[in-house]
UniProtKB/TrEMBL annotation:
Miscellaneous field: During catalysis, the active site Cys acts as a nucleophile attacking the alpha-carbonyl group of tRNA-bound glutamate with the formation of a thioester intermediate between enzyme and glutamate, and the concomitant release of tRNA(Glu). The thioester intermediate is finally reduced by direct hydride transfer from NADPH, to form the product GSA.
Keywords: NADP, Oxidoreductase, Porphyrin biosynthesis
Glutamyl-tRNA reductase N-terminal domain mapped to chain residues: 10-152
Family: Belongs to the glutamyl-tRNA reductase family.
One Pfam family cited in the UniProt record for this chain: GlutR_N
Annotated protein name in UniProt: Glutamyl-tRNA reductase
UniProt EC number: 1.2.1.70
Provenance organism: Halobaculum halobium
Comment block on domains: Possesses an unusual extended V-shaped dimeric structure with each monomer consisting of three distinct domains arranged along a curved 'spinal' alpha-helix. The N-terminal catalytic domain specifically recognizes the glutamate moiety of the substrate. The second domain is the NADPH-binding domain, and the third C-terminal domain is responsible for dimerization.
Residues binding substrate: 51-54, 104, 109-111, 115
Lineage: Archaea, Methanobacteriati, Methanobacteriota, Stenosarchaea group, Halobacteria
Domain Quinate/shikimate 5-dehydrogenase/glutamyl-tRNA reductase: 167-296
Purpose of the protein: Catalyzes the NADPH-dependent reduction of glutamyl-tRNA(Glu) to glutamate 1-semialdehyde (GSA).
Amino acid sequence: MINTGVIAGVSVSHTNASVGDIESAQTVDATTLVSDLLAREGIEEAFAIQTCNRAEAYVAADDAAVARAAVAALAPDVREGAIVYFNHEASLRHLMRVAAGLESLVLGEDQILGQLHDAATAAREVGGLSGGVLDDALSKAQQVGKRARAETAINEGSLSLGSAAVELAARETDLADASALVVGAGEMGLLAARALDASPVSRIVVANRTHRTAEHVAADLDTESTTISLEDLSAAASRADVVIAATGATEPTVRDETVADAGETLCIDLGQPRDVVPDAGDESVAVRDIDDLETVTDEARERRAAAAKAVEEMIDAEFDRLLEEFKRKRADDAVSAMYESAERTKQRELREAMAKLEAHGDLTDEQRETVAALADSLVGQLLAAPTKSLREAAAEDDWATIHTAMKLFDPEFDGPPATPDGAQSPDGGAEPPERVLDQLSED
């Protein structure tokens, strides 16, 4: 099947959803979700990304309705107002905005680029991306993300969720000579530890299930640092003034019993699903989550407003360029199908003509070449005008014409029209390509 897919997407993110909504949308891991989507009839490509502040999935199919139905079935337990659906063009633009950091809680943060790359790699490993339109869209998005950071100040200051958490802690607690506990030694835990290292805290404890990974984070810090296993979490929490949790575990790591003896402590939860029980401990324990970081991140957004405008303009230009590429590819697909069909008919007719001529005597090589050249010339002249028309149709978004050509000339094309905006064009009654060519020959 010639790849002429249409993309549909769905998003549950901090823009419209709460931490609880995002948690409800992440019912299975991203790789399993990609495999489940690929198992649906008609889905050619699939991609999913899950972070602490977003859960998104995209599919590509030849039938726009099939693509929409696939993503519409996701996140059944999420409230209606928290879900955003994207058609083909909206998906293309949104992926670029995500990669550029415009859709991040912390405007312009760098971590999303790595997260997109890792999610694309995981999807590719299970067959979710195969060089089709969705694969192309993700590649373009990542290129735009890199350009945005190289050519603008969108990530100036390198503010991350980890550093935003430390800034929030500094507003609520005196960090001078304080003791901090970082639960989790993954990327987010490392960022939080580095932000604490740059703050006035005097001691940092890193807790992780894998001790060696915790040691790796601690070795990266200049502040006095030690490491513990999760089994010793309660003892460490009782001595900490600030706890920042980001483990990625499926169940909360910091529970009531973890902070039962903590006294006055600020717990900031960066995990998704939650790492800290919302009402953990008694009244002396304050629990904050990603939703509470909005004040800090809004200020960063204001500081980066000018850079964001430049990135928006960059995305507008790249979006138009990507649509033009899409249109050219659709036209080229139809033109290729037309020429391949004509070539099959030409070869069949040549064999029959040669056989009839040879029945009256052997042909010389020169005579054979003359007949073959005549056939080539006829095909080229007959298809010159349709080729021009198809390319003009693509440029003018005339997908009904493109679809009709695919139905006429591609024997494997069996789906309804795949249009960028999801609109359906009429099927129309199409005669077999051989009959069409016969009619053209008769004319």
